[in-house]
Write a structure and sequence with these properties.
The complex is a heterodimer of chains A (about 150) and B (about 130). By secondary structure, chain A is mostly beta strands. Chain A has one helix and nine strands; from the N terminus they run E-E-E-E-E-E-H-E-E-E. In chain A, a hairpin with a 4-residue loop joins strand 5 and strand 6. The model of chain A has no long low-confidence stretch (mean pLDDT about 95). Chain B is mostly beta strands and about 130 residues long. Helices cover about 0% and strands about 70% of the residues of chain B. Chain B contains no helices and ten strands. Chain B is globular and about 45 Å long. The chains are: A mainly beta (about 150), B mainly beta (about 130). Chains A and B meet through strand 6 and strand 7 of A and strand 7 and strand 8 of B.
Amino acid sequence: MNTRLLMTLRANVSAPQIIGGVPHGTRRTVPLNGGDFDGPRLRGIVVPEGSADWLLQRADGVLELDLRVTLLTHDGALISMRSFGLRHGPPDVMAAIARGEKVDPATYYFRTTPRFETAHPAYSFLNRIVAVASGDRRAEGPIYTIDEVL
Amino acid sequence: MNTRPLMLLRLTTAATQEIGLTPRGALFIFPIVGGSFEGERLRGKVLPGGGDCVTATRDGAYELDLRATLETDDGALIHLTFSGVRDDVNRYFRTLPRFETAAPAYDFLNRLLAVGIGEIRDGGPIHIIEELL
């Protein structure tokens, strides 16, 4: 697989809505209150309205993430991003993350697979690519390094 | 991002069902009748009964939505799904496979994400699937 850097995306999160135990696991919804993205071909901000991460903690210790974000480029294009991901690691590492500590992202698995939709001609290439991302969960929110799969 | 080879997947399909132009686009169903997969950690066959729901998008590419059941040579069943893009103009055929299994020997599949590099071959499409490390 060959890749090319697409962007670094930083999402700022608000307090989660703890839905609780549901048939598939433990559900929580995490609203985004802002953020930004920057890359060789695009940059801008996270639009908080309509952006959140729908999380499901599975019984096997794996967290499933279903992130939907609206991005606004510096030149006014709206991009809808959707990204499914998995996060898991040793219990003590995951507990440190939950406490808001700064944890080396190499010590846990946090990978997502973004897809994009836009109507803006300058960014239409995003509609036809798949991407992969590596996450770094900081206290303020995750930082994603997103690569286009070539 | 580092990757590790997971499998080479070959799919055999039956005649395409052309649903036609629906509100979401031109829809084609590719029924899966068989196939095989092989890799260092697992190998076996593709069971009949899955399919790929392919929607032709307005910009000339295809959105893929595949489900299939894999059976390993030691009898484990694995549920495979993938979404993806096929853009023949730009020679881009890439998928995002996901796996679910109850077999303990293959539980690692439940915990990884992967990328598939697709190629069109005469006998049907093949996918070189790599685990995201």
